[in-house]
Write a structure and sequence with these properties.
Among the domains are: about 110 residues, Ribosomal Protein L25, Chain P, CATH 2.40.240; about 80 residues, RNA Polymerase Alpha Subunit, Chain A, domain 2 (Beta Complex), CATH 2.170.120. By secondary structure, the chain is of the alpha+beta class. A six-stranded mixed barrel has the order 1-3-2-6-5-4. A four-stranded mixed sheet has the order 10-7-9-12, with no helix packed on it.
Length: about 300
């Protein structure tokens, strides 16, 4: 059964932001108690505004941490004290200072069943955890229905037989006497996950990516070599074609310089000297062209020497 903790409170009539700030400056915490059999004059659900001592409330909240507790509110009203059994529904705190700003309570009846959530408490150490697995909470609370006197502080679950990859479902949870579990029976509550494998991160090269630059370079080099070879071959062919003409000219010039293909002074034909623009070593048109050896053709003697 859940523990009961007493907390003193007083009714209040102050409302509004300014009034709440003044109460907090006095080290008081405003709160509201919802529920109960009593109703407001207009028929709305009963809601009682109360104030509590901040230090006393902080001690109660500290004791209630980690499990369900029933708060026995001793509310002073009109010179009398009334006991109200309630559950803590919500606690509002300052976002930076964690100062308690407001508390909501839900009043319950000792003769009526209530529905609330109860935290899960683990018993033992799983076999799977000893083998490197990790115990994981799928659900940290279970919804229950019971009388206030049967409300458990927590629901204990033994996990010692839990191996890696196994789970405990709601259907396997043993609820305390007088308590009914409301969650889906197939819903897992706890499980032991396999250990995370430590994988060595190796950057796998994309197929052909590493060799691609070399291939491109090789092709480029082959292309360059081919172009250079073609240029060299073209130059060689050009030289080879030009060589015979150059050799012929050089040969003709050499022989002409030796006097074999050049007419002697005074031995020219009727036309006299060779025509202007004639190539060196070329004979006069009237005397005929020299033979392949550069000698004058037959009968090429000057006509001026006829007897």
């Amino acid at each position: 059964m859940a523990r009961q903790i007493e907390l003193k409170a007083n009714t209040r009539t102050e409302t509004g932001r300014g009034q709440m700030k003044r109460l907090r400056d006095k080290d008081l915490v405003p709160g509201v108690v919802y529920g109960g059999k009593e109703q407001a004059p207009d028929g709305a659900p009963n809601a009682m505004n109360i104030t509590m001592s901040r230090p006393e409330l902080a001690e109660v909240l500290h004791d209630a941490r980690g499990g369900n507790v029933l708060i026995n509110l001793k509310v002073a009203e009109a010179g009398a004290t009334k006991n109200r059994l309630a559950l803590i529904k919500e606690v509002q705190q300052h976002p930076t200072t964690d100062q308690i700003l407001h508390v909501d309570f839900h009043e319950i009846s000792t003769t009526e069943k209530l529905r609330t959530s109860v935290p899960v408490r683990v018993i033992g150490e799983p076999i799977g955890a000893k083998e490197g697995g990790v115990l994981e909470f799928v659900m940290r609370e279970l919804r229950v229905e019971c009388l206030p006197k049967d409300l458990p502080e927590a629901i204990d679950i033994n996990v010692e037989a839990l191996a890696i990859g196994q789970a405990i479902q709601v259907s396997a949870v043993i609820a305390p006497a007088g308590v009914t579990l409301l969650d889906n029976k197939d819903q897992p509550v706890l499980t032991v996950a396999a250990p995370m494998a430590e994988e060595e991160v190796v950057a796998a090269p994309v197929e052909g990516a590493a060799a691609e630059p070399e291939v491109i370079t090789a092709k480029k080099a082959e292309g360059e070599e081919g172009e250079e070879g073609e240029e060299a071959e073209g130059e060689g062919k050009a030289k080879g074609k030009a060589a015979p003409a150059g050799k012929g000219e050089a040969k003709g010039e050499g022989k002409a310089g030796a006097g074999k293909g050049e007419a002697k002074p005074g031995a020219a034909g009727k036309g006299g000297a060779a025509p202007a623009g004639a190539k060196p070593g070329a004979a006069p048109a009237t005397a005929g062209k020299p033979t392949a050896g550069g000698k004058p053709a037959a009968g090429g003697k000057p006509e001026g020497k006829k007897k």
